[in-house]
Amino acid sequence: MSSSSLSAPPPPAPAPSGPASTSPWRSLRYRSMRWWSVANFVSNAGTWMQLTVQNLLVLQITGSAAATGLSMSVQAAPALLISVFGGAAVDRWPRRLTAAVSQALLGTVAFVTALMVALDRLDVTSLMVLAAVTGVIATVDGPACSLLGNDLVPREDVPSAIGVGALVHQAGRLTGAALAGVTVGFLGTAAAYAANGLSFLFVASVIPFLRPVRGADGHAAGHTTKAKDGGTRDTMSVREGLAFFVRRPRLLALAGVTGVSAVFGRNYQLTLAVLVTGPLAGGAGSFGTVSTVLAVGGIVGAVLGARLRRPSVRVVGALAAAGGLLQVVAGMSPSLAVLLVMVLPMAVVESVSDTAGTAVLQTDPPAHMRGRVLGVWGSIGTVWSLGGPPALGLLMELAGARGALIAGGLIIAGAIGAGHLLRERRTTVPRVSPVANLETAA
How far is the C-alpha of 228 from the C-alpha of 344, rounded, in Å? Predict the structure, then answer.
């Protein structure tokens, strides 16, 4: 299939008629969205199959846990440094073509890795290079695929598409982890990489047949505005994307809410692990039970979040503050049974908040700015993911597991509450009576 057929917009799919629905599955009314969900399930299964064996492969090659961590950092580094450029590329280029090419390139990297593993030619240097290349491609692939999925449904159904995507991600993760052991056991490590490569190619082959719904404003290639001299100037610059993000109070507020939650909460695999195995005197089995409840809560939250139609930053903030307060109570849990009771609503609230926040992020900016907004968000999110665990670890060193959960939850709820009060104070305009106006004029 030629690139022109990919870049040319396909005939729009008609939007189903009928009363507004709040079903979490309403996005699946669209045929293209159903195909996109199947493709994402296959891709996620392949990715998690590869990730399951990747760290073991690094350890096998290097014999060093530090090298394993370094390979993960090398792959994450491009998101910190060049996500804004990847987002600008998504805004500049036709979205379907961009997503198809990025998926094909990721598949090529997986096939090259599989070949090098099969030939026993993969060393530390080539491993790091492949990890860096994957990270660079992902800075374009992430926003391209996210926004392409949104084009397949109307704006009010984007939360459903995001919720369905979260469920597909979890299902692909479980399937990929299960298949990894079977694949490696019977076919070897190289087969896991090859299977991931095939999953990327499957997604790339589906993309040309996807149709946006009628009225979807996906990509405006070559977007221009009138210059002062009467000509036109390109507006796809990275600087404009950064300036737009900074001038958008709603996006700044969303970044603040998500940032404080990411640093002082959410890292439950760390805080709850220490709490369960320390003060609550549990073992690995007990923490496994806690992790299972967290996973179940995440799935329930994704379904509930998919029911939203027009989420807002205020909703995200309220949910994040509620999650912080639940975290405080969890930190005071006297037993494992009480902790399990608190963990479920914590995970549900976090998942709904994530779905709502992602919907705001992907629908608030105008269509021609969304790639760059996601690019800026990718850089910010990488800072949180790299800086959050060390900061939380330091807090745990100072206050212990219980203290970190309680203090972190109070900081989250307090910061969000203070931000809300400050916003209300700034937006409150004193009313002046007509009589006062006349007296002033006189």
Answer: 57
